[in-house]
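Narrative of accomplishments. A recurring question from our advisory board has been how the design workflow behaves on a single, concrete structure rather than in aggregate. To address it, we present the structure tokens for one chain from the evaluation set, followed by the sequence designed for it. No filtering or post-editing was applied between the two.
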């Protein structure tokens, strides 16, 4: 028995499969929808929120190396940070500025304030930092007042700006 299938063109559908079996005369037709892409363009409308936000105050940082370089002077690294947003430790690590001595490199507490290995000396700009925390008071009890734990030291207070000079590894300084 002959079978025939008439396909009618349907605008948004496409013929996918037609099968026929001579044994049971089963026929199946499957249609799948045809995706049409529509492009829409719209012009950017300037609004007040799109205007540039006022710039946040920044702290400029200078890091002095613990030993003079081969050519004489102490090496200096520089970085900037948004005031009051980061700990000194994180600024140093983000900028790949060496913070720890040999032991601290492998045994530091990850900034938890429990190892005391992230010592720095604030040579200038200490007023731009937070006060010594209780953790620092405990670890730095017998150390000079200018020494801080970098993981406890917040750089800036969100409003101030200026320059902080940091001596790296003051315990190594010659
Ligand atoms: S990283 Fe351990 S006390 Fe600062």
């Amino acid at each position: 028995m002959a079978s025939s299938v008439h396909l009618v063109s349907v605008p948004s559908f496409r013929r996918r499969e037609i099968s026929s079996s001579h044994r049971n005369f089963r026929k199946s037709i499957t249609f799948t929808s045809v995706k049409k892409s529509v492009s829409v363009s719209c012009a950017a409308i300037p609004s007040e929120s799109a205007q540039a936000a006022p710039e946040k105050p920044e702290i400029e940082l200078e890091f002095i190396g613990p030993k003079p370089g081969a050519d004489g002077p102490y090496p200096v690294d520089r970085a900037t940070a948004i005031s009051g947003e980061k700990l000194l430790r994180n600024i140093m690590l983000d900028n790949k500025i060496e913070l720890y001595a040999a032991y601290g490199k492998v045994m530091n507490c990850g900034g938890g304030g429990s190892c005391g290995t992230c010592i720095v000396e604030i040579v200038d700009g200490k007023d731009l930092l937070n006060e010594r925390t209780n953790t620092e008071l405990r670890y730095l009890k017998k150390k000079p007042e200018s020494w801080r734990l970098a993981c406890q030291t917040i750089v800036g207070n969100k409003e101030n700006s200026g320059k902080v000079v940091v001596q790296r590894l003051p315990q190594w300084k010659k």
